[in-house]
Amino acid sequence: MTLDPVPVLDVDPLIDDPTTRIIVCCGAGGVGKTTTAAALGLRAAERGRKVVVLTIDPARRLAQSMGIDSLDNTPRRVKDLDGDGAGELHAMMLDMKRTFDEIVEAHADPERAEAILSNPFYQSLSAGFAGTQEYMAMEKLGQLRARDEWDLIVVDTPPSRSALDFLDAPKNLGSFLDGKFIRVLMAPAKVGGRAGMKFLNVGMSVMTGTLGKLLGGQFLRDVQTFVAAMDTMFGGFRTRADATYRLLQAPGTAFLVVAAPERDALREAAYFVERLAAEEMPLAGLVLNRVHGSGAARLSAERALAAAENLDEPRIVDQEDGKEELRNSPESTATSSSSTAPSSPSTAPSSSPTAPSSSSRAPSTPTTDPTDSTDSTDPLNSTQPSEAQQLAAGLLRLHAERMQLLAREQRTRDRFTALHPEVPVTEVAALPGDVHDLAGLRDIGDRLASGDRPAGAA
């Protein structure tokens, strides 16, 4: 059975296209999204575009690889770019709380903004409420796009546990701030007195999680103050969330799903592909990262293991038994006896008519005691592999393990392409170490643009 050709993802036409304004790198955690986003941004900038890379990676690897001391909520320009184009590269790392603060400051008068920013409930919400990071990433994306300062925005999505988090968080948080939850919390203030507290107790029955456990008199007052100050802003959260969602669906946006050639990562990638299709969001293709290869792929794992076993085994079958039989034979006994007998001038070997002369003696005759059966210089006597043989056997076994890994990766890729034959794919070979500078990012960009073609590719 012949596999249908797998479409190839051409990265350069994607990043060169002036209509491509946003590239979103998404996928499971730990598959190289941050490195992929940075490499794409660098390559696009060195080909003439003005690019900003937005990362949500707390490890700060992006700053280190780009030669920047640190990244924050303000784009920082990257120096020492190559290429003849007039491009620029900027990088930034999302500050979730600062982004939330900027929204408040932009949509409230100074007095109300101060009341909101100092409110304990707001501080808890902006610092770590579930979904806030994903929502603020989309808020920041909307801000960057509205400024129209960059030709291309490359987004490294948050390390979410589920592909749904990134797509759902903007709508979920917008609904939370503009929904029944807030109205329930505000009910005691509107109803008043004991009746209000009774209503509050009923409302609490539908609440779960940390907020429900923390609810008390002071917490209630903080929430009431927060809601009163934010009252005119709630609709804005929902409106901006909807606008950002439409931005992700726009033709100028391209999603790249990043995955490793592993079962769990590709299962997550397949799920993300299906979700993007359901939401009518433009998928550019799949980046298959950290793909292993071998320069001796023609030597199969089976042949390598067989060769290793042959090196580890004695060189002659039943060698020990054979040599034992040889030592116990009459000829061997006679030879051993004559060679161990003391010699005298009257019994010199040259006086024996049957003794070979010294000039006719075989050149391979050992100079050591012939009774020493452990002579390591004679391959017929050696039952242990040499150091070179042991090393060769070890290398062959390592090669066999690599070939088995390649086979597993190929089967995993084949399952994904069988499920989604329409998705363009490019592969990036695994590197021996981490990427820590612009040269490394440049190398990744080259591999993205001209990487190995997947099996079955046209």
TrEMBL record:
Domain ArsA/GET3 Anion-transporting ATPase-like: from-to ranges: 20-291
Ranges of Low complexity composition bias in the record: 329-379
Bias kind Basic and acidic residues: ranges: 312-328
Region of interest called Disordered, as start-end residue ranges on this chain: 310-387
Superkingdom of the organism of origin: Bacteria
Protein name (record): ArsA family ATPase
UniProt organism field: Streptomyces luteolus
